[in-house]
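Entry for the shared binder. Reason: the reviewer on the internal report wants the predicted structure included alongside the sequence.
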Amino acid sequence: MTGDEIKNIRLREMVRPLKTTFSTSLGRKDHMRSVIVETMLQDGSKGVGECATSFVLPHESADAIKSILNEERPRLTGRKIGDFSFIIQALRKKYPRYPMTISGLEIALFRAWLQSAGKEERTWFGGALRQITTDITVPFTTDRGVLGAWTAYTAKQGFTTYKIKVSGNAADDEWIISSVVSMLARQPGAFTLRLDGNQGFSAPAFLAFTDHIKKKGYPVELFEQPLKKDDHQGLREVSRRSHIPVILDETVFTVHDMELAVEEGLGHGVNIKTAKSGVGESLVILDLAKKHGFKLMIGCMTETMTGLSAGINLALGTGAFDYIDLDSIFFLNHRKKQGSLEITGPAYNVR
């Protein structure tokens, strides 16, 4: 043994209450649930990752995540940590329907490798920035009290960019965007809006809604995943006709997905998430998107700082992202510091 072999992998399920109900066109929840993965090496180095759960992949539950990782754990023990990228490539082929399971494991292995090699995460990604500022999500709701309480709370925290979850139901969506604009107008300072359809729209409904937005003059800078993830014909159409940039999320999990998005003109940008694509795939997706003129957004699932910090370090390290959507920690009670990262209002800083 040389000390860089995997000694053990430990799992721990995490359940945390949310400050407000997180609701989209795909579902709603009051708690976040994930699986924390810790990799220990023979030399004492360790790395921690987080396997998120999401409405997008309901079959990838905490129980399913634990089952897969428990099955693979004996096969991983004794493997050299320097081979982690090859290990992950093989597991992605073996478990194509469980991308977040493999991504969380990859982050844990990657961080163990970094620690064993004496490397710092943000610096390894390039060390470009020392601060980024995130938007904040406004969950879909038609409850004025809930909506008002959340917008008032987040405005008080210093947020100025709001990502509103919309549903594809014209009346409800027109109400929520009008209400948010009205509520934010009472707060000091300017604000920017982003919209997230979570696959809830048809192409005609989306185009009609963007016309409504234009007529009202709302300050909307992007529209994330309006159509079903595999509705390539519809995505091509709305990308040609929309005056608002269309950002792909659920459509792009893998490098192959990104290649199709480029070839078929499915959008104007892509939301990269380490929770869904890990380290290796995220970096290749980033390079492909940048090469072909796609806008770059970095996002998250409902994760604790364990998983979220991977996206934060990727964004800080590369300095490549046009839009920062790393807000999951603000739905939880959280500490202001983790490692070298410090949270000040909506900003992440390197101390």
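Summary line for the report: Residues 99-117 form the longest helix (19 residues).
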